[in-house]
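#struct-help
A.M.: can someone run this one for me? Single chain, 300 residues.
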Amino acid sequence: MNAGLHIEVAGSGPALVLVHGWAMHGGVFAPLVARLRDRYTLHLVDLPGHGYSREDATPLELDATVAQIAARTPPAIWIGWSLGGLFALRAAATSAQVRGLVMISATPRFVVDDGADGRPWPHAVSPQVFTQFAADLQSDYRSTLDRFLVLDTIGAEHGREELRTLRQQLFARGEPARRVLQQGLSLLDETDLRESLPQLRVPSLWISGRRDRLVPPAGMRAAAALAPNSEFLEIAGGGHAPFLGHADEVAAAIDTFASASSCHSREGWNPATLASPESDEAGSQRRAPSPNPLPQAGEG
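D.P.: on it. Structure tokens below:
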């Protein structure tokens, strides 16, 4: 296997770039690939140090990693899950290649901020969560990873099945490099991309699991409200990986969003100008109506 950034390509049609979460790899998106590959070309990224990219020397830093992915993929909608959402959001804020943004169980800031700068961010986890995981990695690598997977799935409607899937996927492409696991935890602990949201020039879709213990729905709803031309969707029984236990619902939402974005592009419109001045009752901005509206929270 060649060293370097591994990006698997599947399907045909408009391009989607999918970026996975902490300690995982692109194979975790198999349920979405099965449901979308007949209509889209999916570019499944293994982040540096993860999966088949475990020998890639690119630093697991936002700008360096985004540049690598962008250099290897066409203009596309970027989809980021959990940690992958930070890379997708950074790309949407800095790269002209990004045509739309889908955030799955991800926000611009993963830890609580007490608002010393006047911008409190209460809907997140304690900073000690990621600090403790980083410390535990040094003493008990495998058990620490398994505890994180349990946190990913605890409380989800199909949590047992999701946990079994994540455990099967974890080392399916080899063990992730420990250095990038530490770097990933640092990104989750330290990154704050809230300032980029009001300036986003592409439409965005924010998909949350109502039972998510790592990224509370309130945080995703608040993030969506900061971005123009955004839409928020809550999966009633979903946890931190809703695309596993509720793959049909998540795939349908992505399909509707991507189809609308593709239609706007073909007609020569700029999707960033399509935001309605009205807001939904949760406070997030809605895109111009599409032929197949997204399901409301709890439907599907």
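A.M.: thanks! The radius of gyration is 18 Å.
D.P.: also worth noting: The first strand starts at residue 6 and ends at 11.
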